[in-house]
């Protein structure tokens, strides 16, 4: 015969509720209710105290509202300290999913008195339908992102003053200790950090997952602390680098001109740790404007002289397939630097930038492009931080990429030129500091860096040895120039190509201008191809009519 769970449990709940009214929980109270508590324990597989709590919450939930510690205290008419002694039993019931817990709106001093409890509807439905206890999902997060979002919601509650600073700290601590199955939480808790620092670190991680790399120190400390004195003292720890998050190499300070504008960013060590724990922060980096995928690059055939082609072919062969991995393993085994640093130098318009693009397309590598002019900040000291962030972002991008991408410094003249005498010039001091950072980064670089410059003669000697490949793009000879004209304008005869290459010492970019003008003319006016017209466009391209010798 099927057991009558419903009647047995409802009778037990009712008797426990009635017998506990104004009882003050004397010694021996549970003995009087032994039969009822055993019936509940048999159904729920719970302890005597847990069964008592289930009975009280179920009965008090019947009026349609959740229950907090004060509701129980008023019914039982006992000291608050007695009920606080049951706190671990409440937590276990919540962890098994029998009880649900949420924050109330009242502002008590103790977090436990402000928690509202209710029976899981799955449990009450099973009892009323005379069914065994259903399989309940434990109160644990499915993903670390869910945990971070929950913590963010708590901070929002604190920011709106729905909960106190103490409640934030206690609730966050409880949440973390219920989430030790996540490698990130386990690793952070082992560091022995105070809860305030854990909240700040995880808040910054959540910011990064949302696509924002910085956390305002003034805002987060105002949210965490009730006391202005405590907040100020805590901020000083960051400003003076004595905070454990900085000392453990997890967070970096991004100072500004104003004390209250200080911002926090994740360090490279922190990003590596997060990836080791299964969190990749740079999944969206490929959508950034400075990242070029091979599919975005149009096919172009490039023609160079024999010496240039020989060096470029060697570089291309190195970047194809698994050759780079093999080479890096071999170099590492011999204690040699693993990075491939390439300098493409020569006159403007000689194809340096296009070479990088075509090399990336052919070898299937993405490009993280850096325009040096954009790294120059109007605020003293910011440029150094921008340069450091470039290398930090590249390292993280490299880790998230299937194959090693290319870090491309376009028009790098300004950062590899000869260092200046500092004197009283803050500009010279900043530029020298930038160069020192880049030199240090190149020394330990493990990826692929390509830089272009028009002014290699002005390059600082310290950079020279740090570039493995140094490819000079010189002026093409007469035969090469003829091939370039033929490649770009196949309609030209061999004789016409020779005539143009002899009379006009143009760069590939200038020849492209001629081609574009020819296309525009045909669209507007139509007609057959006219070599004299092309020669006219060539004359128009010259700024100095006396000489076309501007370099290829």
Describe this protein's structure.
- With about 550 residues, the chain is of the alpha/beta class.
- The protein has four domains: about 5-130, Arc Repressor Mutant, subunit A (Orthogonal Bundle); about 145-280, no CATH class; about 290-475, Rossmann fold (3-Layer(aba) Sandwich); about 480-540.
- Helix content is about 55%, strand content about 10%.
- It contains 27 helices and eleven strands.
- Strands 6-8-9-10-7-11 form a six-stranded mixed beta sheet, covered by helices on one side.
- It is elongated and about 115 Å long.
Query: Into which percent range does the helicity of residues fall?
Result: 40-55%
Question: What's the CATH superfamily of the largest domain, by name?
Answer: P-loop containing nucleotide triphosphate hydrolases
DSSP summary, beta strand count: 11
Number of helices: 27
How many domains would you count in the coordinates? 4
CATH A-level architecture of the largest domain = 3-Layer(aba) Sandwich
Question: How many angstroms does the end-to-end distance come to?
Answer: 98 Å
Radius of gyration from the CA trace?
36 Å
Average pLDDT reading: 83
Which class best fits the helix and strand makeup? alpha/beta
Overall shape: elongated
CATH class of the largest domain: Alpha Beta
Find the CATH topology of the largest domain: Rossmann fold
Report on the biggest sheet: 6 strands, mixed
The fraction of residues assigned to DSSP E strands is 5-15%
Low-confidence stretches: 105-111, 283-287, 547-552
């Amino acid at each position: 015969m099927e057991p009558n769970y419903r009647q047995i449990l409802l009778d037990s709940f009712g008797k426990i509720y009635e017998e506990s009214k104004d009882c003050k929980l004397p010694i021996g109270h549970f003995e009087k209710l032994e039969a009822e508590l055993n019936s509940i324990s048999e159904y729920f597989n719970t302890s005597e105290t847990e069964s008592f709590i289930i009975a009280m919450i179920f009965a008090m939930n019947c009026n349609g509202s959740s229950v907090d510690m004060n509701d129980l205290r008023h019914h039982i008419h006992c000291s608050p300290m007695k009920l606080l002694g049951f706190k671990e039993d409440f937590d276990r019931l919540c962890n098994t999913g029998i009880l649900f817990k949420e924050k109330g709106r009242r502002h008590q001093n103790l977090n436990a008195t402000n928690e509202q409890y209710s029976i899981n509807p799955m449990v009450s439905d099973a009892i009323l339908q005379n069914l065994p206890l259903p399989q309940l999902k434990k109160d644990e997060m499915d993903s670390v992102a869910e945990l971070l979002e929950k913590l963010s919601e708590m901070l929002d509650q604190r920011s709106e003053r729905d909960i106190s600073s103490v409640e934030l700290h206690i609730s966050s601590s409880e949440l973390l200790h219920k989430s030790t199955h996540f490698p990130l939480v386990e690793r952070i808790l082992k560091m022995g950090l105070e809860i305030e620092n854990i909240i700040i670190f995880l808040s910054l991680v959540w910011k990064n997952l949302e696509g924002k790399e910085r956390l305002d120190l003034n805002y987060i400390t105002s949210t965490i602390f009730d006391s202005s004195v405590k907040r100020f003292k805590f901020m000083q720890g960051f400003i003076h680098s004595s905070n454990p998050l900085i000392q453990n190499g997890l967070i970096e300070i991004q100072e500004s001109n104003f004390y209250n504008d200080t911002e926090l960013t994740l360090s490279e060590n922190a990003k590596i740790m997060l990836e080791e724990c299964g969190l990749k922060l740079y999944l969206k980096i490929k959508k950034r404007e400075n990242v070029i995928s091979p599919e975005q690059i149009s096919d172009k055939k490039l023609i160079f002289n024999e010496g240039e082609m020989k060096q470029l072919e060697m570089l291309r062969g190195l970047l194809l397939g698994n050759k780079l991995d093999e080479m890096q393993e071999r170099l590492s085994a011999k204690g040699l630097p693993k990075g491939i640093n390439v300098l493409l130098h020569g006159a403007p318009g000689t194809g340096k930038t296009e070479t990088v693009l075509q090399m990336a397309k052919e070898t299937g590598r993405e490009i993280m492009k850096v325009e040096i002019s954009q790294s120059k900040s109007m605020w003293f000291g910011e440029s150094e931080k921008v340069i450091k962030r470039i290398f930090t972002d590249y390292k993280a991008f490299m880790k998230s990429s299937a194959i090693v991408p290319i870090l491309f410094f376009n028009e790098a003249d300004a950062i590899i030129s000869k260092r200046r005498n500092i004197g009283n010039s803050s500009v010279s001091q900043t530029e020298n500091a930038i160069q020192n950072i880049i030199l240090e980064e190149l020394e330990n670089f493990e990826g692929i860096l390509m830089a272009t410059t028009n002014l290699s003669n002005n390059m600082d000697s310290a950079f020279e040895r740090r570039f493995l490949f140094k490819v000079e793009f010189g002026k093409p000879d007469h035969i090469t120039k003829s091939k370039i004209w033929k490649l770009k304008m196949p309609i030209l005869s061999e004789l016409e190509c020779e005539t143009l290459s002899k009379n006009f010492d143009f760069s590939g970019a200038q020849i492209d201008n001629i081609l574009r003008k020819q296309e525009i003319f045909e669209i507007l006016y139509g007609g057959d191809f006219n070599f004299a017209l092309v020669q006219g466009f060539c004359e128009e391209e010259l700024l100095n009519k006396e000489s076309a010798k501007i370099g290829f």
